[in-house]
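STRUCTURE:
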């Protein structure tokens, strides 16, 4: 009986060690991605010398590679600034907030879809309320969005990804927020541009 107790303690210590290692790895990847995103933003700002340059043309010509950190997502209520990475595959989501590649970018007047893990980048996401804001800093400008509605959908519900006929920042994460294991649902926040 004593051996079984020791075995459970060893298994528990190993599990905690693996979990801790994964968290540290995620945080390190996110820090590196944030540096890369901030460099890309600075580079974009420094190249926009002409204030009369057509912003629509700049947005249209903006190019992103898969897994590249190219922008930041600021969540003022949570005091967080997170890197936005191109793609929503596991490698991209390990580095930061993923941008669904076939959705548009800020300024293109359609659905912008961002996704992230509830236990890494979107920790404390449950504290957000209607009226809270997201700020997306792109290399070609800053865009502020206000959360106007939220919903919870099953994890396999793809109806969230759609043309909306207007610019909407859709941010998704797993739900319930404190669920242990693979969560069965997705929390979806719909945020609309805030007029300057």
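SEQUENCE:
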């Amino acid at each position: 009986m004593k051996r079984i107790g020791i075995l459970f303690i060893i298994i528990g210590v190993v599990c905690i060690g693996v979990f801790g290692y994964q968290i540290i790895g995620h945080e390190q990847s996110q820090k590196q991605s944030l540096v890369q995103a901030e460099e890309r933003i600075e580079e974009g700002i420094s190249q926009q010398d002409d204030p009369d340059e057509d912003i629509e043309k700049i947005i249209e010509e903006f190019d992103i590679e898969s897994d590249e950190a190219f922008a930041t997502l600021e969540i003022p209520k949570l005091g967080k600034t997170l890197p936005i990475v191109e793609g929503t595959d596991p490698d991209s989501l390990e580095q930061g907030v993923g941008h669904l590649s076939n959705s548009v970018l800020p300024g293109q007047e359609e659905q912008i879809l961002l996704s992230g893990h509830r236990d890494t980048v979107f920790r404390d996401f449950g504290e957000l309320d209607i009226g809270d804001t997201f700020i997306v800093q792109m290399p070609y400008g800053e865009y502020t969005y206000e959360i106007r509605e939220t919903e919870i959908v099953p994890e396999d519900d793809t109806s969230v990804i759609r043309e909306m006929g207007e610019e909407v920042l859709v941010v998704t994460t797993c739900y319930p927020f404190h669920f242990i294991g693979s969560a069965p649902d997705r929390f979806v926040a719909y945020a609309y541009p805030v007029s300057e």
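REMARK: The first helix runs from residue 2 to 47.
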